[in-house]
Amino acid sequence: MPDVDYYKLLGVEKTASKEQIKKAYRKLAMKCHPDHCADDPKAEEKFKQISEAYAVLNDDEKRRQYDAFGSADFQQRYSQEDILRGFDMGDIFREFGFGGGGGGDMFGGPGGNVRFSFGGGGSPFSNRRPMAAKGDDLVYEIPLTLKEVAAGATKDVSFRVEQSSETLSVKIPKGMIPGKKLRLAGKGGPGMNGGPRGDLYIRTSLLKDPVFSADEYDLYVNKTVKLTDAILGARVSAPTIDGNELTLKIPAGAKHGTKLRIPGRGLPALENGSNPAKTGDMYVRLHVDIPKTLTAGQKKLIRNLQKEGL
């Protein structure tokens, strides 16, 4: 292939993740696969180009060398056979839901050393039936309160698929903090040529809470305490995410900003297969209240303490 920027060819940034590269390749492959573009004579060449780009950018070592040498130097160092070595189109087709394991005969042989074999005696796609392709995956974001993250929730999800709309009742498990995803198999975009539907991924965002803040599964709450309680120590109450309160001991001499840790009173972690779910911790941040105004008697007492060296 002439000197071509693989990143531009797939329409991704140089910082793109493997998942972004795979998604871009899949989208382009569905558009320009010769089975889907029988009337486009350039489809085969385009398909070869994007497959070569994907073979490089999806391989960590090849991508590292491509980034280091640049496009022209990389293609001088490596033949197309080198680039495609170990790139099994059969596996790729099965993974992307293009249907049966026909990748081997399309690209010159099954398994290990895969090479393209277009041209010459006609198109290798000409006698093939259009292949089934899995539909696009969809992503839907649901805003949750911290209490809903802690207890779980059931939410109605409405979305459009082509010309129709669908509504699903989705059970959100406990611990669905931002960054976690819930997969609903077969609820995504429609497939092509009889292929299966894609998947629907639910992710969450957090609504602001008037009392708590969160960092992953740990919860933080502010507690204002009197100056005398901070100096002498005291027992105070603090709210918990389940709506109850607990009593905690403030040590004598506590400073403004001191954090008191209460193990296991944070958010429950999302269960992960056989791994037991863990629960985060709760941290109570002390805000020592320094009074702005004092009575005459309070001032006298403070001055006496000052004389005592406090």
UniProtKB/TrEMBL annotation:
Name of the protein in its database record: Integrase
SUPFAM superfamilies: Chaperone J-domain, HSP40/DnaJ peptide-binding domain
Molecular functions per Gene Ontology: unfolded protein binding; zinc ion binding
Keywords of this entry: Chaperone, Metal-binding, Repeat, Zinc, Zinc-finger
Protein source organism: uncultured Desulfobacteraceae bacterium
CDD domains for the chain: DnaJ (cd06257), DnaJ_C (cd10747)
SMART domains, per database record: DnaJ
InterPro entries: DnaJ_C, DnaJ_domain, DnaJ_domain_CS, HSP40/DnaJ_pept-bd, J_dom_sf
